[in-house]
Amino acid sequence: MCKMRFKYIKRLLVCMLTLFVLLGSGAASAESQIPYDGYTYWTNGNKKSVYSKAAFEPFGKISSEELKISPFNKLTDFCVSDGKIYILDGNGSRITILDSSYTFIKEFYELKYNGEALKFTGANGIFVKNGKMYVCDTENERLLVADEKGLVNSVIKRPDSPIIPSDFRYRPIKMTADSDGYLYVLTEGSFYGALLFSPSYEFIEFFGANSVVLNISTVFNNIVSRIFPNNAKKSASVSFLPFSIVDLCMREDDFVYTVTGSTSTYNQKGQIRKLFV
Fold first, then answer.
1. What are the pLDDT digits (tens) for 101-155?
2. Alpha-carbon distance 214 to 60, whole Å?
3. Neighbour tally for 141: CB within 10 Å
4. Cβ distance 258 to 185 under 8 Å?
5. What pTM was computed for the model?
6. Residue 229 to residues 3, 218, 232, 242: CA-CA distances in angstroms?
7. pLDDT tens digits along 41-54
8. Which H helix or E strand runs over 30?
9. Is 84 exposed, middle or buried (0-12, 13-18, 19+ CB in 10 A)?
10. Separation of alpha carbons 113 and 149, rounded Å
11. In terms of C-beta density within 10 A (0-12 exposed, 13-18 middle, 19 or more buried), how is residue 193 classed?
């Protein structure tokens, strides 16, 4: 009787082990299709990141070959609006438009403004809403506002305002707009937050700037900057400038979400912030 029981238990264990191996190999095969790693990490201390199963799995991809168009140069942004997908190839001065089933519709390599062809090589952001297409033409230091035919009706350049510092560089990288038509434009390396424009594209103020986190180090550097001149003063002042916002988006309820970039010396909480308009 004992031998019979042992025999059945042995068979059961073999079946369970086989099933476990099959399930494990299936999961491994599925995970091997994911082109990125998932991980757990901590924002404090010196703990190492721990790799884990990815929370999201891709169900497809879009490539120039599948769309049967010329190869992309460098994709810098995309936007979805009214069932269409707008893909910005900044380095190639190119906007590719797809429908909701990822079928190619048309492309723009230049936009027309008063009969002139405007290239936007180096653009970093695109946003589309209510039939208007906004292109953050970074290298040309302007924001282009065009319709879906590629005709530009406005070019928003650096505002002339007393509240904008004289050394401020206007290099738009990302933008969004609320339900009332107000524009929020991020510029590269700005410590002052987004530039807020009225629906008629008049500059109003800066919006959503990060605050400086004060600690013993920043207080000490502040004292040093007051004592020592020139380069020592400039290097010390950098440590208590707020970190710049690198991206933003807006929900249907007009709440603005901003993302602050991470640096090797980052010690500020709230890299993702929700702001009231």
1. 999 999 999 999 999 999 999 999 999 999 999 999 999 999 999 999 999 999 9
2. 46
3. 14
4. no
5. 0.72
6. 91, 17, 6, 22
7. 665 666 677 777 77
8. helix 2-31
9. middle
10. 12
11. buried
